Structure prediction request, 366 residues.
Amino acid sequence: MLHWMIGTESLATIAGMSRAEKTPTIAITANTIIVPSAPLIVASAKKRCVWAAVVSAHIAKSLCARIASADVLSVKNYAVNHVLKKVFVQTVKKKWRKKMKNKNAKSQKLTKTEVQANLKQAKRKSSSQVEKKAEHTRRPALRFIPTAWAKLLYFRDKSDNEVGGFGITEPDDLLCVRDFITVKQEVTPVSVKFDDEAVADFFENQVDLGRKPEQFARIWLHSHPGDSPEPSIIDEETFERVFGGCQWAVMFVLAQNNHTYAKVSFNVGPGGHVLIPVVVDYGHEFGPSNHEKWDAEYSANIQVENFSSCYENRDHISVEKDIDRYALPYDFIDELENMNPDERQFILDELGVRRDPWDEEREVIF
Prediction:
């Protein structure tokens, strides 16, 4: 600006002067040139500063506006992204929950189906068991409550001899033995002989207790010291002789290995007999064992007889009659010898094989 006010030559002249010469000259120059030019300089400076301020303000405004717009856009984008992300996460979670819910529902449905199938199977099995039990219940069976069964086993194991007695039942269940009672008897390994007077006293006592004959005088119980429960010929004859006049009666045999034999004989109408199974029924109330009382009853009623003495006082004729009674007739033997081999073998097989009508074990434990 100084070049513009005083010119280049004046500046060169001033530059060549000494300091003492320069001061007055500068002062004069300033008074003559600069002072008059001061308003112009101030106006120009003012104009320039105002313009610069306006431009700076405009630039600042534009820059700030752009920065603010960018910031707003960035914030907006961030907020939108955050919201979108949150919405996306929620959508994914919702879909996952729905998927898991469907999976659980399917699993529960499958489990419910399996449970229903298991219930149906259990129901069928239960129904089958009930039907089987009902069928078994419909079958006649000689049943013992545990206490009566224990007493019978206890008497059987007291010696190597047979022992016998009567089964006591209830009026509404005549094939359920609730007690085993003995009377005075003589026993050997192959026989039991009741004392007639003791039997009469037993019947009288039972009647006094209010029982009917079918409750105490229809089931004959005795044991075998061996492993076979099959009744002997003497057993069959005794059963026929003593109980043949009753409408019905039961002969029961218990062997040493717990195998049993039970036959119901019917003496009304055409008559007949049938073998029935034997069970220990735990469905009834029963008391404990009483060995002391059982020992006293055994000692009072069971008298062991020497087996060899049974035939000492019998004459030779009676023995021959007994042997002849169980022998086969000679004409049958002759006829058997005259048969052809196949027919003879068939007859022998029929005589040797005894059919079991129940086709099952003789003793069943519930």
Notes: Residues 19-138 form the longest helix (120 residues).
